[in-house]
Amino acid sequence: MTIFLKLIVFAHVLLWIHIVECTSYYVMKSGKDTNAGTSPSTAWLTIQKAANSATAGSTVYTGPGVYYETVTINVQGNANNGFITFTSYMLNNQSVISGKQAKTQSADGAFNLIYIQDKSYLRIMNLELKDLNSSDCSGVRVVGAGTNVELRNLLIHDIRGGGMSGGAVAISVYNKNKANSRRQLIIDNCTLHDCEPAWSEALTLSGNIEQFQVTNNRIYNMNNIGIDLAGGWSWVNGLSVHSGLCANNTVWNIHSPVDSSAAGIYVDGGSNITLQFNEVYNSDAGLEVGSENKGHIAAQMIVRQNYLHNNTYWGLGFGGYDVNRGRVINSLFENNRLEYNDVARSGSGEIVVAFGSGNTVLRNIVKPNEQNLVLTESKGAGLKDTFDYQMYYPYGQGATQSDLIFYWENKEYDGL
């Protein structure tokens, strides 16, 4: 009998724990922030109220309608109780957070529709974020160290007004903390379009960020770089994004009105990152691995099985872009498909090699346009790089490999 009673008590404890972990909160346009928030009929009015009050392991459901807020997430989950999830109550009628009436800045002094600083175990899902205008702003901004933040199935658009400093960014993640990284970050299945990052980027990670996944996103109609994985900058204490995955993203219509050099996907000083199965087209450039800061090294990159086509200048580029920049070393570029890049007929061709060494380019499929220009390399730039086993398809009926053109050390070489 005693054992039986103990089992009953234990079962009740487990049930209570389960209920605590699965608490649901509700935000509705008909609600009040003085309500309990635990049912649709007692919903809160603002998302900020939920962002101040939700408990670890809970889900915050936001009802249909437009919420004119700039939200700072002041709560977080944990490893024991689980994530706090913010999501739409009706997936076929997603909640909208609009910046049209934005008056409250985040702790960083910028306007952000959702702001997360030094927090962990958060999921932001199934929301539409739009209509924010400022020289320095983001749809979602994640700042500082922490773990397990996931941004999934977000629609972010019309974040505008980006200037020479800051930028109007769809998603930005920054960490200048030397001791603690931002890790296990997931940005998945988001659609980002029609923003004005200007001198910044549409989706940007910079600083001490590791074990990240940027996957299955669609990014288009931006006035600068689509995806940027960066490091080496003084404002993030010279720290760099590293040890992550950028895969299955589709990026198009990325054009900089300043210098027409915006890549769809750009690694600037990152290391140990795999970029695979991405598609970039109709942009200033396709995919670039570089390092803009002098003395900084981008290394151990794996760039494979990407489809880079119909871009204004070149499809694939790697290296520091002049002698006063950093270097790209010991990286692998394999099994990529490059087709009909250099639409502007600028003389860049399909592949551009800048300053770096020890890089390997293998088994790529290359189909140039009528220029038949495969590669350009600046004098003194490509030190001990290896090119082999490419598959070339010269342009034009009856064209042969002797029609292919390579510029190496500023000299033209015709054919193989």
TrEMBL record:
Where located?
Secreted
Source organism of the structure: Adineta ricciae
Q: What region holds the Right handed beta helix domain?
A: 248-379
Name of the protein this chain belongs to: Right handed beta helix domain-containing protein
**Which GO cellular component terms, listed alphabetically, does the Swiss-Prot or TrEMBL entry include?**
extracellular region
One annotated GO molecular function: carbon-oxygen lyase activity, acting on polysaccharides
| Keyword Secreted tagged | yes
Chief location: secreted
What does the UniProt keyword field contain? Secreted, Signal
Please name the PANTHER family in this protein's record.
PECTATE LYASE (EUROFUNG), SECRETED SUGAR HYDROLASE
Keyword Cell division applies = no
Signal peptide positions are 1-22
Enumerate the Pfam families for this protein: Beta_helix (PF13229)
Q: Which SUPFAM superfamilies match?
A: Pectin lyase-like
Q: What is the lineage of its organism?
A: Eukaryota, Metazoa, Spiralia, Gnathifera, Rotifera
Q: Which domain of life is it from?
A: Eukaryota
